[in-house]
């Protein structure tokens, strides 16, 4: 005895899963970019103004947005070689005479990250729920 089972709607479900995948990726990418922007903004707020108009360490803080749920916040660079010393400390200058107390976790960048980090996961969860709503899935179950 054979039982025949017909399944209806598989192409529709596959289409919805594809749409959900795209929406989730977009939402998570936006969450990463928003978090990186917040870290950069808070880092700039913590840094002091420099004595020269073009020597402001704040202007060295940049965000690199890369598609695919990835963003990078950086500081310093060739124009601002002193930012690492400013943030973490150490000895610089001629015969290393300029001293700034070494702080392993830094003064600016990682401190700003620690204030943003607790909100990243809830923000991503909210984005995933929004992606579900956009594609017709019920995020509550």
Walk me through this protein's architecture.
The protein has 141 residues and is mainly alpha-helical. Helix content is 49%, strand content 11%. It contains 3 helices and 4 strands, in the order αββαββα. The chain has helices at 10-46, 83-88, 109-134, and strands spanning 62-66, 70-74, 90-92, 98-100. The chain is rod-shaped and about 90 Å long. The two termini are 37 Å apart. The model has no long low-confidence stretch (mean pLDDT 88).
Count of helix runs? 3
Number of strands: 4
- Looking across the biggest beta sheet, what order are the strands in? 1-2
Order of helices and strands: HEEHEEH
Helix share, percent:
40-55%
pLDDT < 50 stretches: none
Q: How is the biggest beta sheet arranged?
A: 2 strands, antiparallel
| Whole-number mean pLDDT | 88
Distance between the termini: 37 Å
Give the class from helix and strand content and strand pairing: mainly alpha
The share of residues in extended strands comes to: 5-15%
CA radius of gyration is: 24 Å
Envelope shape: rod-shaped
SSE map:
Elements: H1 10-46, E1 62-66, E2 70-74, H2 83-88, E3 90-92, E4 98-100, H3 109-134
Antiparallel strand pairs: 1-2, 3-4
Helix pairs in contact: 1-3
Structure summary:
The chain is mainly alpha-helical.
Core attributes:
mainly alpha, 141 residues, 3 helices, two-stranded antiparallel sheet, 11% strand, rod-shaped
